[in-house]
Amino acid sequence: MFEDIEKKWQAIWESKPRKYDPNREILAIDTPPPFTSGTLHMGHILSYSYIDFIARYKMLRGYTVFYPQGWDAQGFPTEIKIENKYGRDLPREEFRQRCVEWSYEMIDKMKSQMRRMGYMIDWNHEYITMLPEYHRMVQESVIQMWKQGDIYRDNHPVLWCPHCESAIAKAELEDRDFDAVLYDIDFGTVKISTTRPELLHACVAVMVHPEDERYRSSVGKTAILPIYNREVPIIADQDVIPEFGTGAVMVCTYGDYQDLVWQKRHNLPVIEGIDKHGKLKNSNYDGLDTQSARERIVEDLKRLGAIVREQRYKKIVKVHDRCKNPVELIYSYEWFASLRKHRDKLIEVAKSIRWTPEFGIYHYIDWLNNLDWDWIISRDRVFGTPLPFYVCSKCNHIEPADSLPFYPERAEPKTCPKCGSYMSPESKVLDVWIDSSITPLVVSKYYQDRKFSEATFPNYIRIQGVEIVRTWALYTIYRVWRLTGKIPWREILLNGNVLAPDGRKMSKSLGNVISPDDLLKEYPVDALRQWAAMSGALAKDRPFSYEDIKYAKAFLIKYWNASKYVLSKLQRVSGNVRLRKVDRWILHRLSEVIRDVTDAMDRYEFREAITTLHKFYWNEFCDFYLEYTKWRFQENVDVEGAVYTLTKVQEEFSKMFSVFAPHLAYEVYWMMFGKEIDGWPTFSFYDEDAKREVERFNREVSMVRTYKISNRMSIKTPIESWKTNDHFDQELSEELRKVMNIKVIV
RNA sequence: GGGCCCGUAGUCGAGUGGCUAAGACGCCACCCUGACAUGGUGGAGAUCCCAGGUUCGAAUCCUGGCGGGCCCACCA
Prior knowledge:
By secondary structure, this protein is of the alpha/beta class. Helix content is about 45%, strand content about 20%.
């Protein structure tokens, strides 16, 4: 039953033409383009359901909503898939083509999942980051930022995998335990501890803790490197741990991240110690890899008597997640976007956006305040947007590409206007966050359609995970603000992650992954969507709950059955409508629910909204009101009032419920009124007296029910008399007798 | 070490100054009642993490402690 209804309405929604009048306000939603992995996980379902709730709510409120969907196709995982399938030796263009084909397959799979969820996405406005048109927009934006001085090329330490010969990102690091040896080496005035003696030639200073009594007198003096006999300064720094080793440490460029911090902080010189192949340079051991060099230098140091102590030491080493080889920090030419110089302004800009929940902005501010260096935007990869620049091989002069999209393989050679040398097209590609950080401009057709972008930009809202505030949200705000001088969206809404039912992260190795496809075998789409709403708290991780989705399914069945009851009474409306007190009560409650749900939706409190709807419909409308109408139909008393009230509740409830459970709500509405849901409720009817009286009345009904249960009677079993301590007027006394099958009230 | 979030029945959780601290799952009892047994009705079950403080009044606000989670940094 559910499946037929789902298919029917999905087809109707998709075939509906969407019209956007650029002369009116259009609410544009900046939806996350998922990475094209081929499957949506529960986190996607949560996030995209939130988006759909907002879109449907705003549509029903009468707004024009622009709700497109994009795909973040480019990136490392796809390259690995293709490498595994075709090897590493394909020509660049062919390799990229294979990646494109593979991504299209994945998009098809994910798209059908999204359609199955009933999302009201406008598929006529899809964007994919790997397409030439998208490349063109990205490259245009990058050239503009370069012209503004926001993008520069610089020699800078980067994380480098000597095995793969590529710069890599922090996110690609993995920790691995290594058995190392900690050597204490005599530097004349001080003894230092190190696990990497082979970097001795790249040593530029020795660090000690400022409060370390042992070295207080040495600070400001120099130490002498054995073998090389070079002097380096001894400097005091808070970051040194006096308890570790000798309490003195050599700074090399670069042994690890801490070296980089110290080198920057104390303005130390740089001696490049390792080349791109992982071999030593500028040393007495040039050409050896780090392992062999270490063995050789330890021998040499021992011969000199410079090693005063060695001890076994378990060390955590950062390795490349793909090849498991240790990474190095090396100097390399890379491209950067200058985030840091705009730090204060970026915080100010972010404050003019409405963050839900509010604390989300602290993730942003905190990160921005702790940035050590600018955003490295270049990568040595293939499946990415090429950097649209030429670099002079002699004087490093930069020229932007003349025509976009720009692909280095097909680029015409250039001559440097400065020195006349050959200019080679840059072969690096851009970080994928460069692609995805202009989505508000892409959505608004900023580079294609001025009129449309004026109506849609800044976008109404961005919805995204809290864990990528530091990347996607920050980069988007930064780029869009630098490109247009405006905020990308007026609001940003953050969602959390879905954990496994046991409260841990879902992971394949733990075997606790729950997939939407599996759930949909057992639960209707509208149940899964309600789960998303019930999952509640924004920007907070929450375990997946079978209880919630079971309840959601049970609720759908309840709604369906109650609707059948209402439907069976629908034809009988005629004559004047006289409302009894119970009618006035439920209409009053309906009005309160409309008010409360509207308010909750405006605050994006979906859990509050769906819970209010559930409780009202099941615990008030079904459990009490529906029962109150049965005798009236049997005895033909005030039937018109009952029909009017049942219909009104059903109508307004279905409109609100359609945000969360659109398939069934549209079906029920269609069966009752022969048309589609076309607006948010505006109904309002308040009767405080009826509310107070009937709530007393409900309590009395519960007491009669309790009495019958405790006497092993069925609810419908008649009883002779009932003694009440409360007082009810004639109408409610009659109601009590009829509803509970009592002969006399005393 | 820095930042953020959180601690309420067996479990999950609503509630951010004031009625008897929601609701769901689970548990117990009864009821096939005519929309629904994928149901109905009722019941048991809470030192609201601990200690102070503010207040006429604290689960709620403040301080400290204990415990958990997430992100970031991290020992050469």
